[in-house]
Amino acid sequence: KVMVDRGSRTSVALLRILLAELHGRRPEFFEGNPQGVSDLDNHGAALVIGDRCFELEKQLEATGRRDVVVYDLGALWKDLTGLPFVFAAWTVASGFLNAASQENKAELASILVRARDYGLDHLGEIAEREASLGKLGFRGDASGEAIDYYFRKSMRYYLGEAELEGMRRFRELCLQHQVIDDHRPLALLDCEGQLHFESEQS
Asked: Are 145 and 133 in contact (CB under 8 A)?
């Protein structure tokens, strides 16, 4: 049995694929709010995401547990496929693509690109603001410097060919392992709002 965090459906799907591909296992999944080491006493495994990862790490260190093996999903994916994993992307409902004019699509693409660029130009300020809110890190104690480092070193903000290929491969494996059953082709908007359809074979 695996307790999974309801905070990321993408991570849950990735875990299903990794367990099937690497170990040939399809364990029972159920949703919960992982609290840390205590979850591991009640379940065979737990998917922990976000700040809870740091909390679990500190709990394991504090309790001296040596019977717990920790894996990073992104690293396992990279080992399996040789590709980066895209954990998040801006998405819109398919109805928007069908109903919006080319001008609307270009406007949306422009807004999102400007939002990304603004954020990248103000990473230091954003990090300090988030630190002052006290909601990041173990019990909200992440410093502005730590958050700034995370934003700059742990995250990437552009999709290149490798990232797109990673998305295609993830979709293929989701279909193969029946994580999803939506066979519609991927639709991508580029920075100019041009629509590109990706065939299932791409």
From this structure: no
